[in-house]
What we know:
Blueprint: H1 2-23, H2 27-43, E1 51-61, E2 75-81, E3 83-87, H3 93-99, E4 107-111, H4 117-120, H5 123-132, E5 139-143, H6 147-157, H7 159-169, E6 178-182, E7 197-203, E8 206-215, E9 218-228, E10 231-235, H8 243-249, E11 254-260, H9 262-275, H10 278-286, H11 294-304, E12 308-315, H12 322-328, H13 332-335, E13 340-343, E14 348-353, E15 360-363
Parallel strand pairs: 3-4, 4-5, 5-6, 10-11, 11-12, 12-13
Antiparallel strand pairs: 1-2, 1-14, 2-3, 7-8, 8-9, 9-10, 14-15
Amino acid sequence: MFRSLGLRIAAGLALLIAVGWLLLYLPAVQDRLLIGGVRHQVSRESAFGDAPNGLKVLLCGTSGPPPNLRRAKTCTVVMAGRHTFVVDVGPGSANKLSYWRFPFEKIEAILLTHFHSDHIGDIGEFRLQSWAAGRSVPLAVYGPSGVEDVVAGANLLYAADDRYRSIEHRISADAAKLDARPFGLADPQQRPTHMASVVFYDADGLRITAFQVIHEPVYPAAGYRFDYRGRSVVISGDTAMSPNLVRVARGANLLIHEGQSEAERKAMVDALSRSGDIHLARVISAIGNYHATPEQAAREANEAGVRMLVFNHMSPIAPDNIVTRRIFARGVSSIRPGKQWMLGYDGLLLTLPQGTTAIEIGRVP
């Protein structure tokens, strides 16, 4: 009896599944599912409202230059009140933000740390997405000396695209452009001191400081400190160990620091040499000279008295599994015992409320 009932239930379920499968082939059913799905996606509440009572920091790209299917190249969004800034625009980062329905029209400016391709590769997409979302004035691009050339080149590259879309969508082509805002940092005689800093933005309680770091042959390369209503975050940019970073980061609540694993780098050089790829082996060998290891970053965080350390721009192999995470983070816990640190990932959202020392850790839904 029970066996017969079970067979009838199984047959009924199979029939329902078969009917449902066949219904999916009907255009009317497909259209109804499509409309419902699009409406749900468009009406989703954004996780990126203003941060009136503190700072919000979103990691939108956390890998180094090597290809990675999970992570975009380096990109960090900092939100302070109604102000939104993007630090570096690595390839794939605009796509991540679009998928998360980030309000591109709120971006006040892009801040470039330097001009390696993995830090500027999506500048055209940020230009387009913020323009299409409603930006009505040129988008400011701050950076050290040389940012003028990067912006001029991007404007020339996308000039035809601006014309096409302005006609097609009846929007101002002038608003599509990028506007270079250099803050210098380079010594006029090109004598690297690596100890310069400048406050280039000070409005509505938000102060942004650019400071030199060590990333030769890139010169000048910059990091940034944001101070807003008693909360602070520092972004290292690409750098070897930097006394200037320690100086500027002193007492900061949060340090977003790059990291390069020496164990991974040496393993890659060895593998490439054995495979006969001498050129790429030389490239990977050289990058050890101008990046900080995770242990060095942890020491800098300790010396600066930083409350929390988050790793970004992790290379040469992103820590995407338990083995690479352990290799990348070797030694960090012994340097910062009992202190807060973590490996960043695309979609990590850190909130620093006003009036507390708390750092809330979340993830973009």
